[in-house]
Design a protein that fits this description.
The chain has 6 helices and 9 strands, in the order βββαβαβαβαββααβ.
Length: about 200
């Protein structure tokens, strides 16, 4: 079982969610269960998020249950239940489970993210949450949707569109485009933190 307990600050509207439910087709194996040293990537993501002092949950699909229950308590797992493809499924499923909470999401393979970047994101959230639906970074003009904050109010609008079959595209970037999104430009020194690990050949580069 995980040695990282769920935080119990009931007054904190912000929850953290590690996104692990992807199919990892190009990697050929579950990214969240890959290891650097003694810990899996999902455990390392949880370790990074602990510094934010928010409750932490793990977004998975049903097929991952047997392996992830060995790492985390059942109550820490959030299962895909909204019928949309890609990471939006995990995001809307987490919103469905916690409709009154804002969600800070982080993909499990974002192994290079530094504590300072997470702290900056939380500071942006604390400053901008009342004015914006979503808060993400921009990497040389491209939004980075898999590390960001998605407010309960913003997600409720998206979920309503989905239920009405009016959500035109099921991409995370589309969600950011139709919402009132605050975009913070990364500094050049931060670019490498957002490296993609899609294939085994990407590791160690």
């Amino acid at each position: 079982m995980s040695c990282n307990p769920i935080h119990s600050d009931s007054e904190n509207k912000l929850l953290a969610v590690v996104m692990c439910g992807g199919k990892s087709l190009r990697m050929g194996t579950d990214k969240g269960l890959m290891k650097t040293g003694a810990k899996t990537w999902v455990e390392q993501a949880v370790d990074k998020l602990e510094a934010l002092h928010a409750s932490i949950y793990i977004s998975i699909n049903d097929s991952q249950f047997d392996e992830y229950k060995e790492l985390f308590p059942l109550e820490q797992l959030v299962f895909d239940e909204v019928d949309v493809p890609g990471p939006l499924c995990g995001l809307l499923s987490a919103h469905s489970k916690f409709p009154d909470h804002d969600l800070l999401i982080m993909a499990c393979d974002m192994q290079d993210i530094k504590d300072e970047t997470l702290s900056t994101l939380k500071s942006i959230y604390e400053d901008k949450a009342g004015e914006h639906d979503f808060m993400v970074f921009s990497n040389q003009g491209e939004m980075e949707p898999l590390l960001g904050v998605y407010t309960a109010e913003g997600l409720a609008k998206v979920f309503k569109l989905f239920l009405a079959r009016k959500l035109e595209r099921f991409s995370m970037k589309h969600v950011l485009e139709i919402g009132n999104t605050y975009i913070a430009e990364l500094m050049p020194v931060q670019y490498e933190e957002f490296r993609n690990y899609n294939e085994k050949s990407d590791i160690g580069k």
